[in-house]
Structure formats: C-alpha cells, structure tokens
Write a structure and sequence with these properties.
alpha/beta, Rossmann fold, eight-stranded mixed beta sheet
Amino acid sequence: MRSKLAAALAVLLFAVAASTHAQTIEVTPATVLFDQTATIRLTGLVPGADVTLEAQLVDGAGHQWKSEEEFRADAQGTVDLTRDAPFKGSYSTVSSMGPIWSMRPVKRNVEAYRLPYGLGAQSTELRLLEGGKVVALAELVQMAMANGIQQIHLQGALDGTLFLPPGGSKHPGILVLGGSEGGAPLQRGRWLASHGYAALALAYFRAPGLPQQLENIPLEYFGEALGWLMQRPEVDPKRIGVMGASRGGELALQLGSIYPAIHAVVAYVPANYRRGCFCSTRGDPAWTLRGKPLAWAMPWSGPGQMMQATIAVERIDGPVLMIGAGEDGVWPSVEMVDSAADRLRRAHFAYPVVVLQYPRAGHLAGSPIICPAWRANMPNWLTRRPVSLGGTPEGNAESTLDAIPKVLAFLRQSLGGEVAQSASTATANGTPSTSR
C-alpha cells in the first residue's frame, strides 16, 4: 500500500514540476549590429523533451520570412544554439544565428531578402513551441549601425556618403566601392563606421550626375575622392584603405596599384584583370586613365590581351585581403584570387596577403550582413534573364560568419583603428531579452 502511495506521489510531484517549468527564450544581447551574433538559449524545458523554435521577420519589402527547427533538451532542460544542432528543420549544423540565416520566404514570388529601408532596424520574433503550442516568445533586433555615427552626404563632383565614427581622434579612412549594381554601398559604409573607420561609400555610376552604365569611368574620379577623404579633419591621411566587391573588388585592386596613398586593399570576389563594359556589345572599356581607355579583356580573350588587362597587384603599397567563392555564379573568383595571390608571391610582395576561399559560397561570399541567405535566381538588370549568383544558403552564411571577424582583424592590423560602440552596448547594455 505504501509503495503504491509513494509511486502515486512521485507521479504527482513530477506532473506538478513539469507544469511549473518556466519555459523561456533567452537572447543575449537582445540588440546587435547586422554583423554581430547573439546567443539564443531555450531554458526551463523538460529534460530530453523535443521542442520547436520558430523565427519570423518581415523584411524591408514587406515580405514575410520564416524558419523552423526542432531541438532536444539536455539533462538540465536547456538548448543552447551555440552548442546544439537541430535534429530537424531549416538548417542542420551548430549555428548561433541559424534561425536567422536559414529563413525562407513564406510566399513564392519573393526573390531575395531586402534590408529595412534607410536606417531601420530588423526585428525577428522567436517562438518556442511544445506540443504545437507557443510557450515562450522573445525578440532579436538587428541595427544598421552603431549609435553616434555621423553621416555627411556629398553633393557636387563626388556622389556618396561619408560615415564618421564618434570620438574626436583621427580615424583610418576607407574608400568603399560597390559593384555592377551601381549607386553607393551604404550598408558596408555603415558597417565599417560601426567599427571605428571613416568610411566613404562612393557611387561611380548609376547615380544622379554620373554615368548610367559602367563604361569609360575615369579613375581620376577615385583619386579626387581619396584626396577629399584624406583632407577631412576626422581622417588620418596616413591610414587609408579601399574596399570593394565584385566589379568594385576589381576596382579596389586597380586603385591600390596606381594610388600610393592606399595602404590596405580588401577585395571581395574580384577579377584579377580589368573587364570590359557588361552593358554593351561594342567592346567598350570600363575604365579610363588620363583620358585613355585601359586595356581590358573578357574570358574568351586571347593570352596577349589578357596579359595587357591583368592588374599589377604587386604595385600595391600595403597588405591585401581577397575573398573567393567556390560556387561563384558570376565569374570564377577562386581562380582569379589565386592568380592574383600567385602574382604577389612571385613578385616577393613585401606586405601580408590574406586569401579567404569559401568552397560552398556564391558571389555574395563574405557579406558583412547576417540575414536570410536564400535567394532565387535574380533577373539581370540589363537582359532581364534569370541569373544565379551561386552558392548554397548554408555556404553563403558560413562565409559571412567566418569572414566578418577576419576582415575586421585584417583592417585593425593594417590600418589600426578604434572599435566604435556596438549596438548591443549602446541600446541594450548586453542584457538578455526574456519573455514568456
């Protein structure tokens, strides 16, 4: 009789304990910059229980995105995304930001994730489900840039925006260049300013008052931009770098080879030789210098033309970092990065050379934005034909998470610089966000 009573009491106590579990989602910090990770923990779970974590957001174009993963709680009734991989769901590896980058659009007609308009923050709702019922909620907020950054919009001969970190000391300056999308690469400018760099996000075509196509762009325009940046009282003229992606990566290598004021080059998925204009079949050059077209080539060009178009990277007066993508859908960036690195090696280049290769990433390899990585084939802006940028969502996300700290470390070692106040410190003081 006593044994039956004891057993019944044990069952009752277990049921009471289970019913009083305080299931929570802990997000630490609750507010981060777009390039920062947060720690997500599920606590108060029944040990060994299977639970579901959902993540949902609405992007800058008003499209809804969602991910869903199933986890098994440990003996303490917790799940830690920095330690635990889901056994089923939108992704399958250990990744603290997996619920973010693995999201897919809810509707079929969405091509890619869009950042919030302007400087808007991205809010992601996290939902913990047990037995199909929501038992806890939390929020992760991603900010476009750190607090205290000043923006100066250029008007006149130059088009772009200068992002200045807070503080009265002189900062290293970085000229930031976009690719064939045109316009100014504002997000990369905000990113760099958030980490202590005076970043000039410069447009050089497809902007008011500038050419509408990437053809016959005078390199003197970038020399003027460098001169303007170096004369700013907030900038240390002895610590100047350049960063570019795609055609901007090609351009960054080219500018580094002709302007001795540049002392560090970061090139994402660049070509190692000057390409022609993509917008015409007439064979127009993309770049000019002193009023004359610079030699250019295309993949089908002969060896002589290719040699004339090759960028003299060995003339760069500072360290070089290049990023290549093994599944690049635009051009063979891995081979071109390796070729440029080999040219530097054979020239006994006097500065450090860092090469980051990501076998499963596409043309967006290393992007400093942690966001949904899935993309449909995008229509080419000129031909309107679908074009794949390549890579898998997992491969692109892996390249982003790996490259962000390595690029920042390279810049610190090459140009110095102070780390600006982070979004988490400025707005949330690094405290967890917990709700039920």
